[in-house]
Fold:
Amino acid sequence: MTEPNASETNPAKPASPLVLRLRRFRRLRRGYYSFLLLAAAYVLSFLLPFLMSDRALVVRHEGTVYFPALWSYPNQIFGYSQSLGLFEDVVYSPATFGVDSVETSTDYRELKERFEKSGGSNFVWLPPFPYSPTEQFLAEGQLRAPDREHWMGTDDRGRDVFVRLAYGFRISMTFALLVTSIAYAFGTLVGSLLGYFSGWVDLVGQRFVEIWGGIPFLYTVIIISAAVGPSFVVLVLILATFGWIGISYYIRGEFYREKAKDYVAAAIATGESNLTIMVRHVLPNALTPIIAFAPFAIVANITTLVALDFLGFGLPAPTPSWGELMKQGRANIREWHLVVFPLLAMFTTLQLIVFIGEAVREAFDPKVYSRMR
Amino acid sequence: MTESAVEDQTTRLPDQSASPTLSVRDLVVRFEIEKNWVTAVGGVSFDVFPGEVLGIVGESGSGKSVTAMSALRLIPQPPGEIAGGQVLYRESSDAEPIDVLQLPYDELRRVRGNEIAMIFQEPMTALNPVFTVGMQVREAVLVHEKVDRAEANRRAAEMLTRVGIPDAEKRLSDYPHQFSGGMRQRVMIAMALVCQPKILVADEPTTALDVTTQAQILELMAEMQGRDESIVLITHDLAVVAERCDRVVVMYGGKVQEVGTARDLFHHPKHPYTKGLLASLPAVGAKKGERLHAIPGNVPSITQLPVGCKFCTRCEEVMDRCHTEEPPLHVLDDGREVRCHLFEDEAK
Structure:
C-alpha cells in the first residue's frame, strides 16, 4: 500500500476513486485494524515451520552447524545408533534389511536434553513451540486437558490442539483465498461476457449457468470424494466450480447497468474496440459490489471447509483442520478444551473478516451521509 | 432573446454546390418494444455540407437523437435496429461516398471518432469515473493514431488548453469528479475533437448545463469549428438553434417536417408545427398577463402515431385528408422543404 500521509498532506494530488476508498477504509479503525491483525497472522502462519515444529531450527554438533528445519538429516549424524527400534526384544539395524543406513528422523527435544546433560559446545535450538501438528503425545494418554506443555490440551490421538489450530488457520485461510480468487476470476469472466454482449449470448449463457447452478453441491462433493478421494486441490476446484455462479450474476448485472451509461457510448463513438471497452472501461466500474462482497465470500468458504471437514468429506485424515477438531469436540463433548478452543479460533477469525467486510462496504458506499443506517 | 438573436444573426450560408460531407438517405430505425416493432425514425433524409452547422430540432420522442446516433451506428441492438437507408460519408468533396451503415466493424471503428465524432448530453456520466481526464483524451488519440504515449499526452494537454481548461498540463491527472459540469463538457469536446473529425455530432450538448455555461460551450464549439468541419447540433432549444445554426431540420414523429436556413425558418415558418413551436416562445415585448401560446395536445407516443400526417392530431390548420394521407416532403423554390399538404400548390 502506498504511504497515505504523503497524499493526505498534499490535497492537490488527485486521487482515483479506488485510492479515495482505500483512504476511507483506513479511517474506519475497527475494520482497518482487523485487516492488519488478520494479514499479519496470515503472513506469520507461513513461518509456522519455524514457530511450531518438532524439528530444531539450529543444531550445533561437534563443531558443525545444522538446520533441521530446512533440511532433514539422518539421525546417526547426531550420534544415534542406527537401530530402528525394538520389536519383541529384537533390535533391528539397517544391516537386518541389507542396507547401509536408513534416514530416521531425530527427536530433537530428546537430543536437546542429551546435549544439555553432557555439556560442551553442542546445542539444539528448538522452535518456540516444539511440537508438530501430527505428532502424538500418548505418554500421558490422549485428550489431555490444557497444561503448561500443551496450552490447549491434546486431541483424541494425543496431538497438540494449539499447534493443530494454528496450522488449521493457515489451511483455512489459504483455502478460502484460493477458492474466492478462482471463483471471482471465472465468475467475472462469464458475467462480463454475458452482460456485455447480452442478447442471445446472454440468453443461452444464462441457461447454462442455471443448469450448472442446479447441480447439488454437497452430493457432488460426496461423489467426487468417494471417486477420487478428497485432497486440498480437489476441494478447492470443486468449491470454485460452484462459487463463481453468484459472482457472475453480480458482474452481469453491473455490466448491464454500466454499459447503458454515456461514457460507454462515448468510448464506442471514439472507435474503441469491444475488448478495450469491456476490460478497461466497464470492468473497473463493475467490480465495486464484488469487492465489497469479497470478505463475506471468504467467510463463506472458510465455513464450508469447516462444514465439510466436520461431516468427514473434507481434507484427508492427518491434515490439521478446524472442522475435524470440532468433530472431535462433538464426539468428546465433556472435554471442554476440544469444544471451546476450535470454536473460539473460528469465531475470532470470522469476526475479524466480518469487521473487514463491514469497513470495506462502508468505504465503498457512494452515499456516505446516507440516513438509512 | 430569440427574436433579437435572429435579427443580429449573420447567416453564413454553406457552399451548397459542394457535395455534402454527410448524406442521410431514407433512414429507418425501429425498436422492438414488448414484441411490437415501433418505428422511431421513419425515412429521414438530410445533407450536412462542409463547414455548416446543421440544427436538428424537435420535441422529445421526435427521433432526433436516434437519427444522430444512427450516423455512428450507436443504436443498441437489441432492442433497436437500423432497418433501412444509407448514411453516406465523404472524406473530401470529390471522394467516393462510403455508406457507414454497411461498413465492416474494423472500418466502422476507424470512422468513429476519427471522421465522425460525438458528444453527449450528460457530461456527468459521459466520462468514465475511474480514469483520469488525461487518460481519456489520450485514449482517443491512441485509438486512431500510431503515436507514443508522450505524444498523445502532449496532444491531450494541447487540446484541453484549446477548449479552455486552465492549467491543462496539471489537470490531465485529475479525475472527472474534480471537474464541474461545464468543464466536463469541455473535456468531452476535447475528446471528440482531438482526432480532428470532419463531422461533430452534438446530442443536446448544453441541455444539462446552466445558462451561462451553455453559452460558453456553444461559443467554444463555434470557435473550434474549422472551415471544412461540420457540426450537427441536436437540440430542442430554439434559442440555441437561432443563435448557432446555419440550416435547420425540424423533426416530428420520426419524420423531417421542414428544412430551411435558420433565417428563413425563424422569419417565415411554413409548416404549422414550426409555426406552433415559434409561437410558443415567450416574446420580449409581450403584454403582461398574456398567456403563452401552446401547441394543443401532447406528443403522440411513437407506438400510436397517426396514419396520415404525423402532426394531424395537434395541427391548427388540419384538413380531412391529413388524417389519411401523409404529405410528401414538398421542395419549394427557395430550396426549402416542407411536409404539409398546404404547400402542394406552391411546390408545383
